[in-house]
Amino acid sequence: MVALTYHAPDSLEEAVQLLSTARQPVKLLSGGTDLIIQMQGLIQDERLVVDVKKIPGMRAADWMEDHLRLGPSMSCAQFTKRQDIQAVFPGLVEAAYLIGSTQVQGRASIGGNLCNASPAADTIPALIVNRAACLIQGLNGTRRVNVEDFLTGVGQQCLASDELLVAIEVPNPAARTRDAYLRFIPRTEMDIAVAGAAVSVTLDDTGVCTNARVAIGAVAPTAILVPSAADALIGTKLEDDALLAAAAASSQAANPISDRRGTVEFRRHVVGVLTKRAAKIAANRVGAL
Amino acid sequence: MARVYFNASLEKHAGCVSVAVAAQNYRALLEELTQKLPQLTQEVLMPLALVIDGEIVQEPFLADFSAEAELHFIEKIAAG
Amino acid sequence: MSEAREFKHIGQRTIRPDGFDKVTGKANYGADLSLPGMIWGAILRSPHAHANIKKLDVSRAEASPDVLAIATFEDFPSVNAAAQRDGTHREGMMDTACNILANQKVLYHGHAVAAIAARSQAAAIAALDLIDVEYEVLTPVLNIDDAISATAPILHETMMTQGLAEPATEASNVSARMELKKGDIEAGFAAADVIVERAYDTPTVHQGYIEPHATTVVFNDNGPSMIWCPTQGHFDVRARVAQLLNLELGQIKVVASEIGGGFGGKTTVYLEPVALILSKKSGRPVKMEMSRGDVFRASGPASASQSRIKVGAKMDGTITAMQATLHYEAGAFQGSPMGPGCMTVFTPYDVENLYVEGFDVVVNKPKVAAYRAPGAPQSEFAAEMAVNELAKKIGMDPIEFRLKNAAKEGTQTIYGPKLKVVGLEACLEAAKSSPHYTAPIPENVGRGLAAGFWFNIGGQSSVIINLNPDGTGTIIEGSPDIGGSRASMQMMAAEILGVAPSSLNPIVADTEHVAYNQTTGGSRTTFATGMAVVEAAEDIVEQLKARAAAMWNVTAEQVDFKDGVAQNLSGEDQLTLAEICASAEKTGGQISGRANINARGAGPSFAVHICDIKVDKETGKTDVVRYTAIQDAGKAIHPSYVEGQFQGGAVQGIGWALNEEYVYSKDGIMENAGFLDYRIPLASDLPEIEAIIVEVPNSFHPFGVRGVGETGIIPPLAAVGTAVAEAIGQPISSLPCSPPKILKLLMAAR
Predict the structure, then answer these.
(1) pLDDT for the residue numbered B78
(2) How far apart are the first and last CA of chain B?
(3) A98: which chain C residues are within 8 Å (Cβ-Cβ)?
(4) Which of C209, C598, C700 to mutate to test the interface with B (most CBs of B within 10 A)?
(5) How many structural domains does chain A have?
(6) The domain B2-74: what is its CATH number?
(7) Do A270 and C679 touch (CB under 8 A)?
(8) How near does any CA of chain C get to the CA of B79, in Å?
(9) Do A66 and A160 fall into the same domain?
(10) Which residues of A touch C739 (CB under 8 A)?
(11) Does residue C650 come out as left (phi exceeding 0), alpha (psi in the -120 to 50 range) or beta?
(12) What is the pLDDT of residue A16?
């Protein structure tokens, strides 16, 4: 028999209580743009669906002293409209803008994108290069986990059964630092990344890159941070040689599969191209400051 | 007399590239052809469309043509 | 018709009569009908591409209170009996039946095995688990090379190749061979200065209609059973269901719902006979729907193909010989459009020496169905690619090269007839002077051009026009409207009757309210059903004259009828159509006209397309930056819908060329059965398709109409293929030009 139970708790305490006492398998619902599709094939299974959107703060985005506190359920449509965030994290905003269609954007959320843990999730590489961390609440308190450590496999993250993601904290970037995200799809939209790359660079006044982070998506079971690609950029003025070296490092770090969306060779090559191009865009953004 | 031209597939049955016929309508044509060229049976011809002077007639049962007509049998064209 | 005529309505851009309901969501499509007491059917589909059914046990399902009816192949008794009598494998009802519900063997992933009806869709789907099937899995045959290899597993033990020089003695996956020739092919190549010979392949693609197949049926013992479904040919649905279930035509009524795209794919039956079996057994109305995945896996896509083309020409640009060997995948049952593929491949060219050989090959994929100009896009793609390469080798502009060799009135085709007046040269001239072709090729852009030919057909159409006492009326036709044809019918009738198009309401009647109509396909509807509308309207004009004559007490010969007004030639009297209708009661009752025709004289339509493409050299991604479609419409009744057909055909062809393809695992499981990974072009992917209508009238149609629905999908494959080849400086031999494939070519060239 179909036994779907739905709860939409008003508080964090209630939510954690629900999660820790549930007898049936639990699914956390944010925008539902992944979950509802995934559940269509599971109509015979017992499920507890906990909708987290009504918990205070889950749909807000506020500037704290040293970071942006992002409510995981804020819709991409609301998020991408925030000029203040766009000014500081243009790469993260452009990644959020790529999720789904205009209609889907009204529901889809960055927290959902993160917890669904698709290898091809667009916002994850952008969160990683911005050193974002997950604030997780469980029965026994809260803990902080960096996004790159939050993900453990295809569709897997480290949330325990009594835990939920309550905030994503993105530290204020250093001076003269900007990010960029690019993905490859064969069409112009409505598609899933065949490869993706996010880059954040810090440039000094003379244009020398003093710090960088590179993360790539859709080319491994999880999005991965690629320090070797960042190292190829640091200390350079992002000349062609440096960009090619970063591209090669990303290609090297990629561990993709061949499937209906692309081959191993294709993904490996293209993730390098995207790294190079994203680095250039990020640098231009710093230059425009 | 009207003249029937056979394509490569029909040539195998007909044994010739073309033949003159006295017939001036489809029914007489079938009768004449199957008599003159016994390998060219009604079973082979009936499913085909008749082309009369370049005009494809998908259902030629009642079709007439002139003594100068140029005739071809072709596969009926599928719809898309 | 030859002289240029002034038209009042034809050629205008009126508002389509079905438009408002469609854009406001009021129109009823296949899945929109629900009836009191209705239950749902669901289909159990094969998880394997090729397997023997060792056991099909429905006893657990039969015992379940949730299951209201079950259908299997055994429920086609007449087909079964015929097959037992005959024993041989022939295309026809047996194949259709086996495709609808598998008979002892499943032949593709998603092949229907059995069906269940239950009170809800979810309950029916859940109950499918109660059917026990034991499969003996066989090696799948997934492409032409595998299918024709000597060691290939045989799909049909009784299938022998037809059309060989010597009759076949062993079963084969090649169902038929066709050969067409003209002139002396050897001598033709001997006379050539330059020869291009290349192999090409194209993938399995789907029409991609947005509306999935769906039906609601009611079996009725004491009158006609009802079938509601979206189809291009409801009379054909009736005929097939009647044959499969051993019913008389009069025992079935088929209502064609509004249709959300067909493109050839809705010319056969899948769910309808199954639903009727379930309805008969349960005594309840039954509704069935395909999911999007079902549509991809188990409806009828278009053939994958392999072509080898050889073309020779003299240095002055005269083509001396053209040769093709064409293989078409038919899917699980024989019957690909290999025949029309062979017939169309070289028809745009007036060449003395031609030779074409075609093969129809079965593979473990769904049985193909028609798709716009079935068979022609595949073969003409190969021919046009080779022609472009040859033109380049000789150093001639591709339009000049085609003009030098263009098919024209009197050209002897390879399939038999000589062409009548056709518009290829006019299209080439229009292309040459088009804003697109005269614009310089931008940097980093490749430009491709290709021509296309399709026959078009006529056939049977029946139409009734009823006039009301106030002069308004109804046009009752039986051709499902898949491209704006109701608007065209309205305009043609209005032109003859001299009334406003909006005063005539065109409807697509069910199979009981109008006589037989051939399926909407072959670009026939505006031509053939249009002819029937004209004839029915002319029938009315004669009646109007007689009625006016009766009012004036003169003979009908003394009455002229023009622009909707009857004129007494022996006096000053005038009566409008509405006035004559208003007095119909006095002059012999109400007025209606009819026509039942089998239209002859369909005019072929040629097209020329121009495509500009930019390629990202680092990723292989293509971007169509400019596209122009030029085609001969004969006469455009409603120019907007003619342009719509050109643009729609172009977009589907571009999709075929760039990203669309069925992707199978080595076990024959389709891996991209959805629009996420089966990539049809999005609106944002393409520029506005510039449409140029050429009008070289077809003398057999009262207004000069040629069909326009199909030709437009033919040229894009080679126009795009050539543009990509130009952009990357490498030959293209395989579609789609997907980024991984293009990047591989670019890397190899480095």
Answers:
(1) 67
(2) 37
(3) none
(4) C598
(5) 3
(6) 3.10.20.30
(7) no
(8) 4
(9) yes
(10) 184, 186, 194, 262, 266, 270
(11) alpha
(12) 95
Instruction: Give me the pLDDT at residue C312, please.
Output: 98
- C contact residues 115-144, partner A, Cβ 8 Å cutoff: 122, 126
Which residues does chain C have with pLDDT short of 70?
A: 1-4, 78, 80-91
The domains found in chain C, sorted by start residue, are 33-138+212-260+266-285 (3.90.1170.50), 305-456+603-749 (3.30.365.10), 458-483+507-599 (3.30.365.10)
CA atoms within 13 A on the CB side of C521: 26
Q: Which of residues A152, A171, A190 is at a domain's end? A: A171
Do A65 and A25 share a structural domain?
Answer: no
CA proximity to A130, closest of A73, A183, A70:
A70
**Residues 6+ away with beta carbon under 8 Å from A131:** A146, A170, A171, A213
Residue C431 is predicted with a pLDDT of: 98
**Is residue A56 in some structural domain?**
no
Beta bridge partners of C624: C613
Q: What is the pLDDT of residues A20-54, one digit of tens each?
A: 999 888 999 999 999 988 887 655 567 899 999 99
Full strand arrangement of the beta sheet holding C504-508: C504-508, C473-477, C459-467, C592-599
- pTM: predicted TM-score of the whole model, two decimal places: 0.95
On whether both A279 and A181 belong to a single domain, the answer is: yes
Asked whether the beta carbons of A194 and A270 are under 8 A apart, the reply is yes
Nearest to C122 among A43, A191, A263 (CB): A43
Amino acid C90: pLDDT: 44
pLDDT tens-place string over residues C379-411:
999 999 999 999 999 999 999 999 999 999 999
For C328, what's the count of Cα atoms within 13 Å in the CB-facing half-sphere? 35
- DSSP code of C299? S
Q: Are residues A195 and A164 in the same domain?
A: no
Subunit contact C414:B7, Cβ cutoff 8 A? yes
pLDDT given for residue B12 in this prediction? 82
Q: ipTM, 2 decimals?
A: 0.93
Spans of chain A below 70 pLDDT: 1-2, 41-45
A256-280: per-residue pLDDT in tens?
999 999 999 999 999 999 999 999 9
Q: Do A273 and C619 touch (CB under 8 A)?
A: yes
Minimum-distance CB partner of A186 among C618, C663, C738: C738
Q: How far apart are CA C598 and CA B55, in angstroms?
A: 14
CATH number at residue A216: 3.30.390.50
| Average pLDDT score over chain C | 95
Is B74's CB within 8 Å of C165's CB?
no
Same domain for A124 and A207, yes or no, is: no
- pLDDT at position A39 is 82
Is C260 an 8 Å CB contact of chain B? no
Helices C739-749, A264-287: crossing angle, 10 deg rounding: 90
Domain ranges, residue A141:
61-171
- Which residue in chain B is spatially nearest to C233 when comparing CA positions? B79
**Which DSSP symbol is given to C441?**
P
**Cβ-nearest to B7 among C416, C458, C460:** C416
What residue of B is the nearest CA neighbor of C417? B54
Please name which of A82, A80, A76, A85 lies closest in space to residue A108, comparing C-alpha atoms.
A76
